[in-house]
Amino acid sequence: MRLTVLGSGSSGNALYIESGATGVLVDAGLSAKETARRMTECGIDPARLSAVVITHEHSDHIKGAHVISKATAAPVFASAATRSECRFPRGGNGIRWGDEISSSEPFQIGSLDFYPFTIPHDGADTFAFTVSSQGVKVGMVTDLGYITQLVSERLRRSDLILIESNHDLDMLKVGPYPWSVKQRIASRLGHLSNDETARWIREDFDGYAVYLVLAHISRRCNHPELARLSALGALESRGSGFFPGASGRLKLAYPDRPTEWFNL
Ligand SMILES: [Zn+2]
Ligand SMILES: [Zn+2]
Question: Does CATH place domain 2-263 in 3.60.15.10?
Answer without folding.
Answer: yes
